[in-house]
Amino acid sequence: MDVPLSWQLAKLVVSIGVVLGLSMIAERVSTRVAGLLSGYPLGTAIALFFIGLEISPAFATQSAVHTLAGFSATLALGGGYLLCARRDGLPGVLAGSAGGFVAWLGVSLLLTQVEFTRLTGTLTTLAAIALFIRLYRRVPDTAAGPRGGFSWAALGLRAALAAGIIFLITGLAHVMPAAWAGVMAAFPVTMYPFLVILHLTHGAAPVATVIKHYPAGLGSLLCYALCVSLTYERFGLLAGTLAGFVVATAWLLTWTRLQAWFAARQTRSPSTGT
């Protein structure tokens, strides 16, 4: 079907706004918080919503089931980027992107060969989250210091990357099966452009911090994809999207409070033993 121009403009505006917001959080709050929010259902929500709007809620529902497992490929992308992006500047971005995309494509090819259910897709990504959290435990936390605000070049790059990825995913969904559409919807639409800009402006160390904390934020994405897979056909795209964000936010708030409680308990432990 022909996609109305208003829908295309909406995708453009939302994609750009989300990426810029993440970049501002990294500079003004912390890269740790930005890493957690990179796992919030921002890019995935945009992709699944417009897939449902442009094709059908039923197709978006089937895609969302495969998205649950597709987050494992997203984790592989982060791992590949971290492994290869050891240098600062453009060489580091190019090497990290190459490593990340190879890892993402390899895992995606495996995932699309499996007929996932909601349960098996969720369990697959949960196992991947546990693996990557363990692998990243020795990665140091590095803050991103301010570098003088946004330049027109940075704004243009952010806009091009975010919009281009969204348009590519939703466009390919028209000609590909639901399994591939779902895996593509799990692609880090907001995180990848954010990583590129952060890497170019602040170097490889803050990027490693974002990637380190990304798996912990994926729980909200899992909650979102699971919720919309149950609500899109029954209640419609708008209500399903709203319900997905409510569930994802509840999970993220619960997770951050549990982390704070665990950190406080670890801090008290040495004094208790003395």
Automatic annotation (TrEMBL):
Transmembrane feature ranges: 6-26, 33-52, 64-83, 90-110, 116-136, 148-173, 179-201, 213-232, 238-258
Protein name: Uncharacterized protein
Key words, A-Z: Membrane, Transmembrane, Transmembrane helix
Domain of life from the UniProt record: Bacteria
